Amino acid sequence: MLLRQLDESRARLTITVDDRPLQAFAGETIAACLLSNGVTFTRLTPGGARRAPYCLMGACFECTMTVDGRTNVQTCLRLAEDGMVVERTRTP
Length: 92
Known about the structure:
This protein has one helix spanning about 30-35, and strands spanning about 10-15, 20-25, 45, 50, 65, 70-75, 85, 90. About 10% of the residues lie in helices and about 35% in strands. The protein has a single domain (about 10-90), classed as 2Fe-2S iron-sulphur cluster binding domain, sarcosine oxidase, alpha subunit, N-terminal domain (Ubiquitin-like (UB roll)), CATH 3.10.20. The protein is mainly β. The strands form 2 sheets. It has a 5-stranded mixed beta sheet with strand order 2-1-7-5-6, with helices on one face. It has a 3-stranded mixed beta sheet with strand order 4-3-8, with no helix packed on it. It has 1 helix and 8 strands, in the order ββαββββββ. The relative contact order is 0.25. The protein starts with 11 loop residues before the first strand and ends with a strand.
């Protein structure tokens, strides 16, 4: 599923996800940016299962990633910022 923006007149910014630059819109959450750019998962469980944004309101913690060096950030609650560095969480 690919999401599309309803208002593309908003300012664009760039975040880096696992060394890959992605375009985001001002006021958009990291999770929304990931989903609209086709990123299919945000973290791996200890067993290697892929997890992805689910509730998009901060209740489930499935969308956690490392953001600018901070681990376990809920990407559905954090707004994307220009230059932000995001990495998938790989649970040992």
